[in-house]
Amino acid sequence: MKAISAPQYLYSAADTRAIDQAAIHELGLTGMELMERAGQGALAALRQYWPAARTLSTVCGGGNNGGDGYVVARRAQELGFDVRAYPAAPPESLRDDARLAYERYRDGGGEILDFIPEDFEATEILIDGLLGTGLDRDISGPYAEIIEAMNRYRERGEQHAINQRAIVALDIPSGLHADTGSRLGVAVKADLTVSFVALKRGLFTGDGPELAGVVILDDLSIPGAARQKVLPSARLWTPPIPPLPRRPLSGHKGLYGHVLVVGGDHGFSGAVRLAAEAAARVGAGLVSVATRTDQAIILNLTRPELMVHGVETAAGLNPLLDRATVVAIGPGLGQSDWGLALLERVLMTELPLVVDADALNLLVESPYVRHNWVLTPHPGEAGRLLGMTSQEIQRDRFAAISSLQSRYGGTIVLKGSGTLIQTSDGIADICGAGNPGMASGGMGDVLTGVIAGLIAQKIHPAEAARLGVCLHAAAGDLAARDGERGLLASDLLGKLRYLLNGPSDG
């Protein structure tokens, strides 16, 4: 998807259908006209990505998604493609617009074949018109077998450079839940997804990014009046990251806040170091660290700009809290009595907080509500905070983050593929950047420091969370240009500085 710095609005499947129905009943468009536009748009998209392709097969289900597939097949045949259609449902069972789309393809001489799992071998493009956005249960039986055959077709294409194959999903990959982004048992892995009418939020979080491939929107030229009937349920943010305003020549470190990072129990000094340096790299004026005494001198040696203090009791935090603008707590904190005592003391302050890692695990025992903090759980931590499994969290990440925000207040960052950010306004933000190379130790510690460093510079916690997540992900993408495997959290630190200043500042 083209990189943008303003959000794109995302919708649930029900809201997308409401837009579609408003266009039909209030603006005079017909369902068949919209289906024709969808098929034509999908064909135009695949020709843009694979201009040399001349063979196309389409798998068509029993609903409107299948109807879209028949339109693509007919339109491609009219352009001279070698086309085959594979009905996954008996054509006589089709209704309304889908039935008409099938008849137009058939009457135009379109070839229709019984489904044989390996019959896709000769085609360059395979169209997924099997199941649409209404799916809400796990797939089994013949439809699961069809999806598995489609994925085998794609995998064999990846193994043979001279025989490339691609799958294009119509509206959404079959088997992906349009609202939650979870895989419903089995799902098509597409190279390109053409989302019709509006972008579905499930395409961008959980399993969505892996299954959807490149996502483009075809709004079918539906007028804005139809879209005003519904509100978006999420926003997608993607780089580029706009640089922060230039600092005045009269600026001094006192203007840019003082971050206190609390953590680093015995053996975990690296976590607190990463968070502290990340806060400094995004522009915090001062950064202090409260950690175990025997580790303080080591941190000072390796990063002398940090002010590192050995703190063995909660009372030892008092003078540090008096000078702080924001507190980040959790990296390497551990769950011993020492960590618990420090967390309890930090919770007594009115300072904005960023809470991560073991500080979140300690909150499980003593739930707390606060409006000026940012909690940054991964799915496992989120599950513990809600008394659920991480698998349950991943099945509906939107529901999970909403529950977390209701229970704990403030701003919640639910990390993972398609990281979510939510505040009390009820609309989830999704970060559209990041890569699998960031699945390595210390990445969450860097994110904690980034958000805290932005809050120190007088950025509201909710905005700091949204900007921080996208900045962190964009830095990871820059660092991954040298390869995803072996990407380290510390590789992001220089990239953070670069992104926030803009290329011209070097």
Could you name the key traits of this structure?
2 domains; alpha/beta; Rossmann fold; single chain; 506 residues
Give the SSE map.
Layout: E1 8-11, H1 13-25, H2 31-49, E2 55-60, H3 64-78, E3 82-87, H4 96-107, E4 125-129, H5 141-159, E5 166-170, E6 192-196, E7 199-200, H6 208-212, E8 214-218, H7 224-227, E9 234-237, E10 258-262, H8 269-281, E11 286-291, H9 293-302, E12 307-310, H10 318-323, E13 326-329, H11 337-347, E14 353-355, H12 358-363, E15 373-375, H13 379-386, H14 390-395, H15 397-408, E16 411-414, E17 420-422, E18 428-431, H16 443-456, H17 461-479, H18 492-501
Parallel strand pairs: 1-7, 2-3, 2-4, 4-5, 5-6, 6-8, 9-18, 10-11, 10-13, 11-12, 13-14, 14-15, 15-16
Antiparallel strand pairs: 1-9, 16-17, 17-18
Helix pairs in contact: 2-3, 2-4, 3-4, 8-16, 13-15, 16-17, 17-18
